[in-house]
Write a structure and sequence with these properties.
Distance between the termini: 27 Å
Shape: globular
Number of helices: 6
Length: 119
């Protein structure tokens, strides 16, 4: 998840999130939270945020469970960081989350996204 190549980070995050379908995702989610809180390597943090949204997407599609509150808190907190590649991956993860949950219809969320992206 800390590869210099973005494609490798994306594939690792997606593979890890799909692994959560057949195992207990709580361990993976807690490890991801630890990585995000440590905030030492932006490559690893950005891949972890994307992985968290991928877990949300795969788990939600598979058995209608949800990590929504955790995911949205992480995304809102991470949007305050403007360093790259973290910023790009957070916005991409946010797009996945919003598309998956159909929140895009909420005007207050749309305003918040526009303000965040414009900064």
């Amino acid at each position: 998840m800390s590869s210099l190549y973005s494609l490798n980070r994306r594939l690792a995050a997606e593979a890890l999130s799909q692994l959560c379908l057949v195992t207990d995702e709580s361990f993976v989610v807690s490890e991801i939270q630890t990585t995000i809180k440590a905030n030492t390597d932006t490559l690893r943090v950005s891949a972890s945020i994307y992985c968290l949204c991928s877990i949300q997407r795969f788990i939600s599609n598979h058995n209608n469970d949800s990590l929504s509150e955790l995911v949205i808190r992480v995304l809102v907190a991470a949007c305050a960081d403007y360093t790259q590649p973290l910023r790009t991956w957070v916005l991409y993860s946010l797009a996945i989350y919003l598309d998956m949950n159909e929140i895009v219809r909420d005007r207050s969320i749309i305003r918040w996204i526009l303000l965040t992206v414009n900064h």
